[in-house]
Write a structure and sequence with these properties.
This protein is of the alpha/beta class. Helices cover 29% and strands 20% of the residues. It has three helices and six strands, in the order E-H-E-H-E-E-H-E-E.
């Protein structure tokens, strides 16, 4: 699976995904920092990458229909998250990715659960 990490996720998260065997690109690596949401999702679509982000705008399936993409994951971390929060949420996501396909779906990752939106 190919993953695109948004600019609000750091190198430690990218390393965690890479160590788990995923093909990971980051917004920063590709010089997309500051890109609009629409530009970013179009790049993900063209590259066939699942977007992993903290940006709540991507959690609206009426604006970003998950069936048009290789998956959208929104991490719902607490306000003022600590480094360990990013690691915990990423590990939670990785544990579910091994047995489930995200292609065409929206996943909202919270501390102790993942809500999955599968469009009809």
């Amino acid at each position: 699976m190919k993953i695109k990490l948004d600019e609000n996720l750091g190198r430690a998260v990218a390393l965690l995904f890479r160590e788990s065997g995923y093909d990971v690109e980051t917004v920063r690596q590709e010089g997309l920092s500051g890109a609009t949401d629409q530009q970013l999702i179009q790049v993900c679509q063209a590259e066939k990458r699942c977007l992993v982000t903290l940006d709540l705008d991507f959690s609206n399936p009426l604006v970003f229909n998950p069936s048009d993409y290789s998956g959208i994951v929104v991490l719902r971390v607490p306000p003022n998250p600590a480094y360990q929060d990013f690691i915990e949420f990423s590990k939670n996501l990785l544990s579910k990715l091994t047995d489930n396909s995200i292609d065409g779906n929206l996943w909202i990752v919270q501390r102790n659960q993942i809500r999955i939106y599968k469009p009809d």
